[in-house]
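Lecture notes, structural biology module. Today: joint structure prediction for complexes of two components.
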Amino acid sequence: MTTWPDNRRDMSWSDRFAGRMAHVRASEIRELLKLLDQPDILSFAGGIPDPAMFPIARIKDVYADILAEAGEQALQYSVSEGLTPLRDWIAAKMTAMGVPCDAGNILVTAGSQQALDLIGKLFLSRGDTVLVERPTYMGALGAFNAYEPTYAALDIAAGKPADAQLAYVVPDFANPTGRTLSRAERERLLDQAEAGDFAIVEDGAYRELRFSGADEPPVLALDVARSGSIEAARTLFCGTFSKTLSPALRLGWVCGPRAVVDKLTLLKQGSDLHASTINQMVALRIVSDGYEAHLERLRARYRDQAAAMQAALAQHMPLGVSWSHPQGGMFVWLRLPRGLDGAQLLEAALAEERVAFVPGAPFFAVEPDAASLRLSYSLGTPDDIDEGVRRLARVIASRMGGVRAA
Amino acid sequence: MTTWPDNRRDMSWSDRFAGRMAHVRASEIRELLKLLDQPDILSFAGGIPDPAMFPIARIKDVYADILAEAGEQALQYSVSEGLTPLRDWIAAKMTAMGVPCDAGNILVTAGSQQALDLIGKLFLSRGDTVLVERPTYMGALGAFNAYEPTYAALDIAAGKPADAQLAYVVPDFANPTGRTLSRAERERLLDQAEAGDFAIVEDGAYRELRFSGADEPPVLALDVARSGSIEAARTLFCGTFSKTLSPALRLGWVCGPRAVVDKLTLLKQGSDLHASTINQMVALRIVSDGYEAHLERLRARYRDQAAAMQAALAQHMPLGVSWSHPQGGMFVWLRLPRGLDGAQLLEAALAEERVAFVPGAPFFAVEPDAASLRLSYSLGTPDDIDEGVRRLARVIASRMGGVRAA
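The predicted structure, tokenised, for the full assembly:
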């Protein structure tokens, strides 16, 4: 142990953080969620896939096969853009979705969260405007905040285009609202983007989880239909294996013009070199065989859970409460009567009824509406969902003076 | 297919990239390395671990065990800071290296490349000065460049401290030089950092690959000895499993004061949520049992390869060529006679002798020395190494007028 003069200068870390850190804050919600991991709480809070649906046995077999057949390659460094056969598969998938493209239009990322971070890094400078829905996915705000943009409301119904660098949108079964944009809304968004000359970031995280109704074309597909080629498009599509296969593999992608994908690839290289080689090989083999049947089982599961939640909401909720009716994904958005506050309600719900959800306000980048909350139905059995909604309805009714639905 | 008026505005992507992209450039070296994957080339270029040393069978068994025992957890989302048992193991390892700490001082990252990116994101604003060795690891420059710093030479021998935000150093078997800082040099670096009030980023990527000589204490350990606690230290240590276990798992870590680790964790969350859950569980189980024996085999392998390279260099190189004598790691740095250029030499070496290496200039952030090159011995057999060095010596000698070593 060296002794050292007392006049040694102590390190003051907080004085030397970059200015961007003023925009990077801990999510109260994520902190809160850590406290909810108690067995007697019925939770609609976590927006995570049902682990009972992970194809564990298949994944186990595939890891073993890949390591037996190509262990040295699977455990070695690989290229920043992602393994070519996986990019080929993704490109074929995008092509089938109406976006003709090839592997050069695809970057494999560490989940779609990293796609959003790299897009922020590529496009956003301090003070740039990002258009977001009200409410929007808070993880996107978490990715963009480090690049110090300002946010403005994306108003798809509005006639005049906004002045912005880019718009972020979750067009299918959005987190947190469960809402899907109609084809006409997608076209109107493109009209606005062309008139205002901004780029569109299309987050397709839940797109494969449609359990009723018919697919709408991706915004990128409509864009390519207008512009004639993905190379002339102004939309970047972010996809992920997290909601369909497993979030733990940390695999997603960006699909867009080469001019953008090439730059994102450079940023990926500087950020973490490449996505896990072995996980890419495992994901490719799994999606190459029997994947559609797996997706059908997953959709059936969420269809049942969503139906249970809609039935419970209709049965138990007081008049004056309204909610969304998603055709896919994991989320229902609930509007409380004016004057109620989702965050205050959560405290009461935990204390009085042992039921949890995510208050709505943190999902708003502009003009928060506190009289809202997000419910996820991905984890509960139909019975748990019914019981949890019954409890939640009791808390809400008690705050409203006890008015009940007919 | 929609037809569209001809006056539709086309997207001009390059006009809207953020200013930071002026600092983010494709690595010529990485582009070059892609061309070297030809069977008749003897390559000392790739700085990657010997895949023959990956414990494939063990990794295969462990993936199977983890998925059988805890598949739902292994495939689910997990916390941004990394799994607590893995952080406990890393903290115990750091403690054994002279850095008493606990899991709160550890963030698990996607390789140490991501540690460098997150550190850049936390500390660097446009124009901040980063002190780097001449030459330095080009991947660190790739991580920092997106935050637009300027670089200055880190001169550890200098008396007066530099004015800088942070210094980046690879003290053990550096990439690209193979050089190790003596204990006195580490202390002098800390003196400078205290006098100049800058932070130190210690990249310990190769630290476990010592095959001769005795360990030097990590800079962070000397810092903690001075300051009394990791919480008062000014050094951040970046470690990785990429060189010892497998780079494909994409697992590394940062060890530092909680005040810093907490902020880096927020940035990790916004960047990619968390490192692969299953890969973290697999790595923890592997390093928990039989790991030291694996490291000993790895060190023995690199010891033999390094010895073969030193013998071949001594035997074949012309007078006027000098090189480093690393006690660990993967790299030898070779100084060419004045007037020779590593990049030009590579062209000749590929065309005339089918031998490859990395020219030295790109490893310099300031004042490049073109009369240098990096040789990696991690991939070759002793016979290949001898033959490759013989060929390289022929090319160099031919450029020097044929002067040969005695």
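Point to remember: The CA atoms of residues 122 and 263 of chain B lie 7 Å apart.
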